[in-house]
Amino acid sequence: MAEVKLFGSWGSPFSRRIEVALKLKGVEYEFIEEDIYNKKSPLLLKYNPVHKKVPVLLHNGKPICESLVILEYIDETWEGPSILPKDPYERAMARFWVKFLDEKCFPAMWQACWSIGEEQEKAKEEATEFLKILEGTLSGKKFFGGDSIGMVDIAANFIAYWFMLPQELVGFEVLTKEKFPKLNEWMNEYLNCSIIKENPPLKDKLTAVFRARFQAVSARVLLKRDRRVRVFDDVVHVEDVVEVGEKTKNDTVLTGVEVDRESETNSNAIQRGGA
Amino acid sequence: MATTTTSDGKLLGLWASPYTTRVQLALKLKSIEYELIQENLQNKSELLLQTNPVHKKVPVFIHGDKPICESLIIIQYIDDTWTNGPSILPSDPYDRAMARFWAAYIDDKWFPLLKELGGAQGDEARASIVEKIFEGLVLLEEAFVKCSKGKALFGGDNVGYLDIALGCFLGWIKATEIMTGIKWLDETKTPGLVGWAERISSDSSIKDVLPEAQKLVELYTMSAGLEKGASN
Q1: Cα(A164)–Cα(B76) distance, rounded to whole angstroms?
Q2: Which of A73, A92, A268 sits opposite B97 (nearest CB)?
């Protein structure tokens, strides 16, 4: 029985992160492919009851969940090239940037690819702002981790495939060579470094999935956008209601209603000069 | 008042912010001297904007000329840097992973529910959030049982990472209990956490740092507006 098992999915950037880290440390592991969209295995649900997600690392029968937690565990458990820097301040910086990547960059970039209309425009602007910040951190460095890849490079993996491929398919230009020369160089270095080159994500398979998703998304049509303001118990709720539909052969069919709500107390709203 | 000795660092924070409380707890545990600078979030200082240009938020811990942001990252920095004092994170890598996992759960999933409750409209919405908060507490109870391994605190015999990560919210948990009348920490549902909360609140190294629930209620009521007159 393998000592190390990884429950993951070929298409998940979070799962790929762990594979890169394990390979960096030369750890042998058994990979268990999960069908995360259709049917998660009973074992996955047993080992990750809180989030029910991949990746889950199983080491000597003990499960560890959440990719960033797993990366730190791998670094602390196995010898080999460091994933995190040794210096406490550099470690704090690395942790800061991976949090920034996961909490800010990834969601904005994902939305920039897969939303429509105004939501997409807003997401593209946000993604651009965040990428500018990232670009700034690469001054004079080959990788985020310095001369060799580290935790931030591993965490930034979604940029190379999960953002660049859809960007090309959808046809917008957020991360261009002209606007982000350092990030582009980083991507080339990252994709060319041996650990990544030897184990690339399946580009053709990913492209096919993205293409199918793009076709579904481009059939989506913005039907109506409405803004309503409601006051309830001294709290002001501003709701943006978006109705989306899907173009069929003869018609456009309503497929969903999305409500985006922002609430604040009346006194805050008044202070701000709002309604 | 005697002149202050060289402090080890500066902490930009807000007395009512549980994330600031977290850092204060860690600094207290390690007996680190620092200068606390209260920020006004409506009028952020130049220093805050310079040291946390990305998020512009508190807390920020400045050690010498190095600013560190994000409360859990600051705590780990403190633990990595001041190695003479008691350890905050457990020594075993698996226990460390558990501590990090649950701290992330508290920040990403559980505490946002308490904030959401404040803005909930209608009985149904409120009831749904209340249910989720209780479900989360049951998970945290299980985490307590696993992490404490039969001892008094998440960190075992001593205050540790999760004691700080969850303990910082005790003021707000009690304040919300006062404001909603709902007893979040209930002996019939989460006896482990009830016992833990009592121990943390009376721990000599911690209790002076935790903000008082009543003061938080006053702050919340004030900012929620007093147009209605008497509080509910």
Answers
A1: 34
A2: A73
